[in-house]
What we know:
By secondary structure, the protein is an alpha+beta fold. It contains five helices and eleven strands. The protein folds into three domains: 1-50, no CATH class; 51-111, no CATH class; 119-202, no CATH class. The strands form three sheets. Strands 9-7-8-11-10 form a five-stranded antiparallel sheet. It has a four-stranded antiparallel sheet with strand order 3-4-5-6. Strands 1-2 form a two-stranded antiparallel ribbon. Strand 10 and strand 11 form a beta hairpin. The radius of gyration is 21 Å and the shape is elongated. 27% of the residues are buried. The model is unreliable at 1-18 and 56-68 (pLDDT under 50).
Amino acid sequence: xxxxxxxxxxxxxxxxxxxxxxxxxxxxxxxxxxxxxxxxxxxxxxxxxxxxxxxxxxxxxxxxxxxxxxxxxxxxxxxxxxxxxxxxxxxxxxxxxxxxxxxxxxxxxxxxxxxxxxxxxxxxxxxxxxxxxxxxxxxxxxxxxxxxxxxxxxxxxxxxxxxxxxxxxxxxxxxxxxxxxxxxxxxxxxxxxxxxxxxxxxxxxxxxxx
Length: 210
């Protein structure tokens, strides 16, 4: 016999056996997701439906600041804008190596290495020949530097990803180095902590005017 808990809905009070519970979504009789059975009995499909809808309700242009937990198959949040819809803070790296966006109806999905190459290319195009301060990523490290030719700079360094950039030159770069000096590992490389992730997610990439 599985653990039993009390679950209340508008119509009645139910006692739910975690091993026997079925999804409480209307007209769905699939077995409830094991980790949810004694809380709210939902099948795996409807757990994801509720999850995505919650993101849509709570999310903003800068994301929800990672105030919800990753689902079992989700390995990590990926800082910076989605290449598909531009929303920041809602890119998720899955344990199977796929990157997906959790923003509303966005359907962006890409294999991890292709995602990195795709976003590096888009960032290089968006920056053009303007002077920018970039935020490259390699694992749990971020490189904060400046360039007037971001595409060629990315090609020479070949990082895992270019999370974002902001318009500015050496003076802005120095301000960012000072701002995050407590996170410095060596040179222009910094620990990619939640503080730095929030900063990256707050940056709105400014494309070249048409």
